Amino acid sequence: MSWGIGLLWRNHWLAWHYKQGWDLPGHNIGWGEIVAVELAVWTAIALSLTTTTLQLCLDNQGVIGALNAGKLHNAKENLVLQQITSLLLDRDIWLDIVWVALPDNLADALSRRKLGCIDSLIKIIPKLPVELHDSLYKVTDLII
């Protein structure tokens, strides 16, 4: 089982841990990958980033294709994608998606519970969207 979702931004990090039972029908690793993008956008918003381009380095070709095409095959993943699109449009944020090989994905260690030091935790932590409350813990809920 996967441990969670990791985000690395300018040498600072955040992570979210999957709750037991997170993998409901429609909630699989693909869902987790697209939720990671949503959480990256929420983090940018919490950091007051608007009218900007965010570069996201992703190791999942399916998510990259979905972001470029604007659709996924899973209904629950499509709901997340619609939320991402709405957030981006409302705040004039653009995504620059870059594929990285899994061994080069620096955030991957965070998703496997290899967390950074507490001093490098992103200080402004986005509020977890209500629709994710049953699936994820913010790591700060577990360590602070």
Structural notes for this entry:
It is built from five helices and five strands; from the N terminus they run ββαβααβαβα. By secondary structure, the chain is α+β, with helices and mostly antiparallel strands. The chain has a single domain (4-143), classed as 2-Layer Sandwich (Nucleotidyltransferase, domain 5). A three-stranded antiparallel sheet has the order 1-2-5. The mean pLDDT is 92.
Series of H and E elements = EEHEHHEHEH
The termini sit apart by 24 Å
Which topology does CATH recognise?
Nucleotidyltransferase, domain 5
Q: Write down the domain tally.
A: 1
InterPro entries: RNaseH-like_sf (IPR012337)
List the keywords:
21% strand; 3-stranded antiparallel beta sheet; Nucleotidyltransferase, domain 5; 144 residues; alpha+beta
